[in-house]
Design goal:
The relative contact order is 0.14. The chain is about 45% helix and about 10% strand. With about 300 residues, it is α/β, with parallel strands linked by helices. It has 14 helices and six strands. It has two domains: about 5-265, Ribonuclease H-like superfamily/Ribonuclease H (Nucleotidyltransferase, domain 5), CATH 3.30.420; about 270-309, no CATH class. The protein is globular, with a radius of gyration of 21 Å. The protein has a six-stranded mixed β-sheet, with helices on both faces. The longest helix has 18 residues, at about 160-175. This is Ribonuclease H-like domain-containing protein. InterPro entries: 3'-5'_exonuclease_dom (IPR002562), RNaseH-like_sf (IPR012337), RNaseH_sf (IPR036397).
């Protein structure tokens, strides 16, 4: 994406104005692309912890996008209950299925919003699931990717990535206990500049990632939407485990994987189910399955040479 400006939202007047802006952006005729990209931060971000910062990127298609850091720690429930000029609230927007919102792994964000503020998310598109569904084989889809891995792989802006990595590292040093930090830094006011940059970084590349996978979603969309909805519903149940096991495993069932395989069409492994019949390790399979301009003839030559050895 291009340049972006960052603004702290910590008054009810600002919340009301922001709500009015979001409503204005989504009145008919509605835009074809999403404008809301969201990430949350807090101390143990889930029902068992707190929500401190609600980061919102608004992408209107102009060269400069706006990133808002909403100070939930200071505003509390007023963040979601303050009305704009039309009588709408941020909670209303988040619960409107006709207003698209993009998250990367919505699970714990949904959990904390529902548990602490009664916000039942609707209209969510989860880029983590979109990226997973875009992979060509069931084997490569087994594990979910992190945001950092997706940004590194799919965002070609090498110069921008260097500053993005630096901002993420500086922020992590402040809150990661392994680096001597504490998550309570998200409750420090005024918000430290390193945390502002860190939060902005969490949404900075979401528009680019969303556009990358939205363009090829097609038949995948129903499966992705279904599993996104399942994530949200699961996060609202009493038995939900915010840090439960197998969180890095993709949700696709055997039938869903077959559907995704058919959507991706015949390829070098179309007749080998999920077994790695080519004798390649996981990294090699990943490289072949995700390379730009994949060369099947080259692949066969290399495979034959390997077989002969």
């Amino acid at each position: 994406m291009g340049e972006f400006k960052t603004e702290i939202i910590n008054t009810t007047k600002q919340i009301g104005d922001l709500v009015d802006l979001l409503i204005l952006l989504h009145v008919p005729p509605k835009p074809h692309e999403s404008t809301m990209y969201i990430d949350l931060e807090g101390v143990n971000l889930c029902r068992e912890g707190t929500l401190s910062i609600f980061t919102l990127l608004i992408d209107t298609g102009t060269p400069t996008s706006s990133v808002y850091l909403i100070d939930v720690f200071s505003l509390g429930v007023e963040t979601f209950e303050t009305t704009g000029a039309k009588g709408q609230t941020l909670k209303d927007i988040l619960q409107d299925e006709n207003i698209p919102k993009v998250f990367f792994d919505v699970r714990n964000d949904s959990d904390v919003l529902y548990a602490h503020f009664g916000v039942a998310l609707e209209g969510v598109q989860d880029v983590q699931l979109m990226e997973s569904a875009a992979r060509k084989t069931a084997r490569s889809r087994k594990h979910l990717n992190s945001l950092a891995k997706c940004v590194e792989q799919y965002a070609p802006d090498r110069r921008g990535l260097a500053s993005w990595r630096l901002a993420k590292e500086k922020g992590a040093k402040l809150f990661n206990p392994k680096n001597g930090g504490s998550f309570t830094v998200f409750e420090q006011r005024p918000i430290p500049s390193e945390i502002i940059s860190y939060c902005a970084g969490d949404v900075q590349y979401l528009p680019k990632l969303w556009k990358r996978f939205e363009a090829t979603a097609n038949m995948q969309q129903d499966l992705v939407n279904k599993e996104t909805r399942e994530r949200i519903l699961a996060s609202q149940k009493p038995e939900y485990k915010p840090n439960g096991p197998n969180r890095t495993l993709a949700p696709w069932s055997e039938d869903q994987n077959r559907t995704l395989d058919r959507w991706h069409g015949p390829g070098p492994r179309a007749h080998f189910d999920d077994e790695n019949a080519w004798g390649l390790d996981d990294d090699e399979m990943w490289e072949y399955n995700h390379a730009e301009g994949w060369d099947f003839d080259k692949f066969l030559r290399e495979f034959v040479e390997r077989y002969r050895r």
